Amino acid sequence: MRNKTAFLMVVLGLLGVCAQAQEKKLSKEEAITLALENNYGINVAKNEVEVAGNNKGILNSGYLPTLTGTAGANYGRDDSVIEFPGQFNEDGSPRGDVELDKAEAQSYSSALTARYTLFDGLGRFYNYKKLKEQYQLTELQARETIENTIVQLFSVYYEIARLTENEYVLGKTLNISKDRYKRAQYAFEYGQSTKLDVLNAQVDITNDSINVLNTRQELSNAKRDLNVLLSQDLNMLYTVDTLVTFIPKIKLEAFVEQAKINNVSVLQTERSLTINSYDIKVQRSGYLPTIGLSGAYGWNLNQSAQSAFFPGTNTDNTSFDLGASLTWNLFDGGGTTVRVKNARIAYENQELLKKQIEIEVDRDIRNAMANYENKLVIHGIQEQNVITNQNNFERSKEQFQLGRITSIEFRQAQINLLNAQTNKNLAKYDAKLAELQLLQLTGQLLNVEL
Known about the structure:
Elements: H1 2-22, E1 24-26, H2 28-38, H3 40-55, E2 66-82, E3 98-119, H4 123-189, H5 195-230, E4 238-240, H6 249-257, H7 259-262, H8 264-284, E5 290-303, E6 314-327, H9 335-401, H10 407-441
Parallel strand pairs: 1-4
Antiparallel strand pairs: 2-3, 3-5, 5-6
Helix pairs in contact: 1-5, 2-4, 3-4, 4-5, 4-8, 4-10, 8-9, 9-10
């Protein structure tokens, strides 16, 4: 038992030295920067914004004319023999055959055609506005992705911070157990205590050592989780900032009051509602005529082969054409009417969805605020509990050294202090995560220093 205890102590010491020698500190700001630059989900969202930006450009608006160029060439060659059976020349001799060898014909053509739509029932106009709204909606969707990633990032970041502080607390507990083991060993050697006290101390060292090892393993796993979010090497080693500050309540209340104009879900429904309104106008354009202009320039060259009766000819032709057209679909079987009705229904559904989301967001904000305030209170209670248990432990330590309480009673005071400290760590980071969730709901997560 004594050899196993010594082995655990050596292993823990080596692990601690190796970790501290290779790890650097990763601040919250650096973590956010790495996530914004490297996170795959965020980069995909950025690319989608870029696509939406391309779609809302003038090149995709339909306002520019079209210019089409065509060109062609043909080549033909004939080798033929023309016979005149039963026909005679003027001198009475039979008329001979006429041979056409390598009779070649070529034709070349090219044309440029330009078309421009002057008026299409305003469908192009409203579709262009719709694409701009779609771009803003995509930006909001990318913002939502970033906010969700930041919350996920800090849930892992603060879990690392919590485990780091727990590791420190467990390490101090282990050192206390080691010191108690040495005292029990000396007391036993001098006949001042029984072997039971030594065995109890060894058992406590083993349990504390295992707790430290398990916490370090959880810490390593959490760091790998953070590396995945940051899209970096899974073996990257670092420490995190365990300092937590809370936003003043008066500032949070101001954020809550402005939540409906800043919440990303509400803003998305407003953009979608605008897009649906443009959809109705785009479909209505089917009732109106389309007016267009066209122009063409063409060039043709034909070189025909000679025949038995006609010599070869060359024809060079150049043409210019200008035109205007009016197209009015007076009745399309009712398709336009159906599309307009459906667009109006989609708009009504979007209005209902907006009202639903506004109610849900209001509920979520109220719940998040109450949850945050509750966790702050719990954090304060846990801080006071640590002070109480720290005082109790110090008194128990004095009494134990004087031999007035047993090792079991001292161990209980030690465990109470350990539980109070780990519970305080948990309460602190739970309160901070609740604050981040409240900031996300109020639309201020990306506007404050975390």
